[in-house]
Amino acid sequence: MASITEPELTRAIERTLVAKGRMTPAEARPVARMVLGYFGADDTVLDNKLSSEDRDRFYQLEEEGLLTSEEEDATVSRGKTWRIHYWLLKKARIRDVGQSGEPPAGDEAESVYRSIGEAAWKRKPDASTPQR
Question: What fold is seen in the domain 6-105?
Fold first, then answer.
């Protein structure tokens, strides 16, 4: 499958994380650039190459189904086993989300909460409850 482009990944981020309010629109392109910088022309990147801040972003993208992580065990000298963690781009999902005309619908509970006005969220003391 062909490589993911920066505009494709940016659109996918905008239609997932930005649409859900988990990232600002201004962050979408730099995050896409950062992710693709790690992957380059490869389909995988070793987890230990990531900074902790970048790893947090990778986890956000994994929650949206744009990345996935896997691990494998490798036997090294003297019979020791090392666990290798790595990340993969979910190219089909990125393209599906990025090419759709509408951002993916949020879950029903999210839309209900967003429809409630700010005033409803402010607590007012009940007149019948004695204050201390």
Answer: Arc Repressor Mutant, subunit A (1.10.10)
